[in-house]
Write a structure and sequence with these properties.
Radius of gyration: 26 Å
Distance between the termini: 49 Å
Largest sheet: 9 strands, mixed
GO molecular function: glycosyltransferase activity
Helix content: 25-40%
Strand order of the largest sheet: 1-5-6-12-11-10-7-9-8
Subunit structure: Heteromultimer composed of HisG and HisZ subunits.
Family: Belongs to the class-II aminoacyl-tRNA synthetase family. HisZ subfamily.
Subcellular location: Cytoplasm
Oligomer: single chain
Number of helices: 13
Main location: cytoplasm
Structural class: alpha+beta
Strand content: 15-25%
Length: about 400
Amino acid sequence: MTVSDRWLLPDGVEDILPPLAGRIESLRRDVMDTCQRWGYQLVIPPLIEYLESLFTGTGHDLELQTFKLTDQLTGRMMGVRADMTPQAARIDAHTLGEEGITRLCYAGHVLHTRPRHMLTGRTPIQAGCELFGSASESADMEVISLMLETLRVAGLPRIHLDLAHVAIYESLVGEAEFDRDTEAAIFDAMARKSVPELDELLGECPEGSAGSRLRRLARVSGGPEALDEARQVLSGASEALDSALDQLERVSRMLARDFPEISFGFDFCELRGYNYHTGLVFAAYVPGHGDSVAKGGRYDAIGSDFGRARPATGFSLDIRALVSLGERVVQRQGAIWAPADQDPALEGVISGLRLTEAVVRALPEDEGCNPATRGCDRQLVKKDGQWVVESLD
């Protein structure tokens, strides 16, 4: 191994250095403070767990993204978390076991075997909120509203929110009764929005059948007009589909009322998290960035795998990505430079200042250095026998 090999980091893994690290930490604190002001309690799940726990309820969507290792104590397989949502569900269902509404929030690193897309790394800093114990639209509205509030805190401009409903695709596929391989191919094509592939897979479905409706629905997306078009495509199909469309309309109207500055749309090909989401799903985007900056939805079934079925909804986001995309300005005062003077009075002044200020104490090796290079904009100087703070200028 050469010397250069010793400091090389794996692809998609990075050191976060000043001042970026300070901006990320500042946003993490503000996002968590925002969530806690809404009544969400902070939890810190472990970095590693047994695989059975990490994958429970997710339909193994996370399996390819999870690094696996053998526990030297038990011989069982463990995984480094790739998503903290299943951990929050386990905490609610098994560790806390409380009745009624539980609100949890979290923030920390997750690890992915490969980046989700070209603009992200493999070590996102995930933050999110989960609300357990309510199946109401009010709970969905609360979670979406809180997500949009955290994006405002992050300084993201011109947010666009896409809404979808898992029950629409689930109902049509169930009615069509495709064989397993065909259903998998349809799912893959629809998730990639590949209309030509869907036409080939569904071309022989008779008009008015579930397959035909699915093919037409794949072409439907956009603003409020898309919801009207979807109603025409799904007219007379089933009460479950009508109910899902009604919910999308109600939620979009409430959001438009409460967040008039945000644009809304509907994407009926949105199948992210299909294997564990059970109802309304949503994703936020900003112009010029192809992947969502925050996403979430309802996942009522996941708690049953932990022995306690609970309705649940939540969202997650990547703090690192938000800092890169946002226009957030962090006003931070520089530190105070203290000279390498052995005056006992100086020690007392430094101790008092450090209760509220950052103070950098000079060392002998700092002689002749510019305090500004140490992040300082003020200095302690002795005047008339007293140590006072003055501007470096």
